[in-house]
Give the backbone structure.
Amino acid sequence: MKNTIEIKNFRSFQSLKVDGFKKVNLIGGKNNIGKTSLLEALLLFFYPHPNSTLGIKKARKQSSDSLKKQPKEAWNSLFYNQDITKKICLQGEFDSQCKKIKLLVAQSLKSEIFNEDENIKDLLGIISEDNSSISILQIQQQINTEEIIKKNLVAHSRGFYSPDFPDEIDIPVIPSSVPISGQEIAKKYDRVKYEGKSDDFLKMIQILDPSIVEAETYSFVEPTLFLRKDNQKRGFPISLFGDATYRCSSIALEILSEDNKVIFVDEIENGIHHTNQKEFWELLFRLSKEFDVTIFATTHSLEMIKAFALAGKKYSEQGAYIELAENPRTQKTIAITRSIDDLQYELEHHKPVRGE
């Protein structure tokens, strides 16, 4: 298994190749080196869907109002140097499956990328008769030698539209600062409980607060998740337990969902006290193996990297650390992949592992 991805013309990457991914992957490096961009590229590679693109924009807190005012610039920030004339290419191989993803932009209904898509032509004709304020992102996917699958996402003065929205899917990504709603977290917990995994969820929450003894939903009270401590008669909404518990719950629910085989967590250290980080990683390694889930996470915390290495000793073949750094000769970003054992050696000998 190669477990590799090559990225071209995406965000800050003109070209970047990363090899050696495992089941649990931690991405580190200096600020603004491209950790989140790599996570986004992996997200689009595994989930090449319009929802992924919109989720990326939401996580980056890009104003929908400004995009509506300038729909022709809706996709610029996805492209290297904001040059939408060059395709974004994501090509890789995971678990012996080869996949190619391409992202193209058209700002005219006459574009050749719509030659065989009469439905979207008719739709866009209704949205904008003069075709002056439309920008279309097309996502192309090819697995091995199968037929290319195309999905379109339209930006116009009224917002976003995709004919693929009826096939809307849940994107298993935990951004660094945008929480999911209480209603959504309750829905996810009900699904996990139905699948018989509520005990695993509780164990993960108890890493942060061992006094929490029960999780439950009460739709007639409030559509959210309620947590109860051992000294309480009834539970309280999860929003009252702080950001760390809320975020840890979101991560746990994504891992435990049967629908998710790959999840993405940006700045995984957020809210996790350094004294709990090793135990947190140990549980992630165990759940990843037990439920066959691949995890991609980013961090700029040295403490979190050390905890990852310590917890990974029991799972040395399951984890990989990817360091993003700048090539001093070319000033381009490069990726250095380390096994758990190699990472542990570097840390013990006080070697730099965060792109220093």
